[in-house]
Amino acid sequence: MGKYLDPRADLTFKKVFGEHKNLVISLLNALLPLKDDERVESIEYWPTEKIPKRTQVEKDSIVDVCCKDNKNREFIVEMQMTWTESFKKRVLLNASKAYVAQSEAGGVYDTLQPVYELNFVNENFMKDVDDYYHYFHLVHDKYTDKVIDGLHLVFVELKKFKPQSFSEKKMQVLWLRFLTEINDKTLEAPAELLENPEVSEALKILEVGAYSPGEMRAYDKFWDYISRQKTIVNDIYREAEKAVAAAVEKLKQDKLDAARKMKVKGYPVEDIAEITGLTAEEIKGL
User: Fold this and answer.
1) How much is the average pLDDT of 137-165?
2) pLDDT of 208 over the 70 cut
């Protein structure tokens, strides 16, 4: 094992960003689409009873930190190690719950503050685009400067991130390098990370020597669960692909069988092609 632990694990992510307010403030300001006058200045972590209840699967696979700032804006930060399409809906549901939870019976709506959910995803899920950063919010489809300020959802695809392409956003690059380059095989952190005060502090928290044997067992258990979860998901996808391929092949054979019967009965090739969807060449070859 190297000098550091992986910051994406439940134990380490929460130690860095769930116990050190200055570090999560730096992360939020670096990754969220905030204007200069909207930057987070101070935060308070959510009390335990406010954090949404999770299923056992979610508890084992989702790493999250929840807080609000001095303007009462709510922030949810999550690390998602395995991806399914339902994750987007769960993110929307959690952000919506946080927004609704601000309201009180008989209260006024203008006191409701925005909710930001920052999601780091350790998978490529938008395979048709190259960008690693995706920002969703309520915007007019024609007049894009017209926005309803309420829910702000950010997804960061960690595997797509390439630091040399985004040098103009220094802290964003440094934090994403921290999340993508540091792991339990790292013997020496890059100089650029060590030179930055916030990231250097986060690296210190990741040093292996700071963790008890019990914490190391919890750390290993997390990665074991992630490995098993990915194996299950991959097996499901493989079985689904086999089932689809078998269904396609059966459909093709059914069309060929029907075409043979029509050909024997003297149907014109053009009619057989129209009915079965086969090409004239396929029909002539029967």
Assistant:
1) 91
2) yes
pLDDT single digits (tens) 161-195: 988 755 557 899 999 999 999 999 999 999 999 99
At a CB cut-off of 8 Å and minimum separation 6, what does 43 contact?
21, 24, 25, 28, 67, 68, 69, 70, 75
Q: Residue 107 forms beta bridges with which residues?
A: none
The pTM of the full predicted model, rounded to 2 decimals, is 0.79
